[in-house]
Write a structure and sequence with these properties.
6 helices; mainly alpha; 142 residues; single chain
């Protein structure tokens, strides 16, 4: 009986030691599970509410796309100039690159001259890319 009591006491101490070591990890995991369950619950609730209070009558007129009341003539698939796509891609490229300036601005004091040198190189590459696109005529409407 005494050996069983010693076993459970040792087990309880070991479990407490392991729990204290991994407490932060366990709490992070519980937080993650809570967020996932909350997200799933909110999505399911929105879906169920939309099904319950949404319109139930369907007909041919409701299934047609709304075109401001004017019936279309001919095909709606018209060719679009590639310049629109190119301009949009260039905008996204330079816009995303400027987003990287914010984290740099947050930590620039910690890294000092190395941060200035790295952002200088980054901006030089950015300006060369813009100059290249400008020289190739990608920014001009034709």
């Amino acid at each position: 009986m005494r050996s069983l009591c010693i076993f459970f006491t040792t087990f309880a101490r070991e479990f407490e030691r392991i729990f204290i070591i991994y407490y932060k990890h366990i709490m992070n995991f519980i937080l993650l599970i809570t967020v996932v369950i909350t997200a799933i619950t909110l999505v399911a609730a929105a879906y169920v509410i939309a099904k319950l209070i949404g319109p139930r009558s369907y007909n041919k007129v409701k299934g047609e796309p709304y075109e401001c009341g004017i019936p279309t003539r001919g095909s709606s698939w018209l060719p679009v100039s590639i310049g629109f796509y190119l301009f949009a891609i260039l905008f996204l490229m330079f816009d995303v690159e400027t987003v990287f300036l914010y984290p740099w601005a947050v930590v620039v004091k910690e890294f000092g001259a190395a941060a200035l040198l790295s952002i200088g190189f980054f901006l030089v590459v950015l300006v060369f890319g813009l100059a290249y696109a400008w020289r190739k005529g990608a920014l001009e409407w034709k």
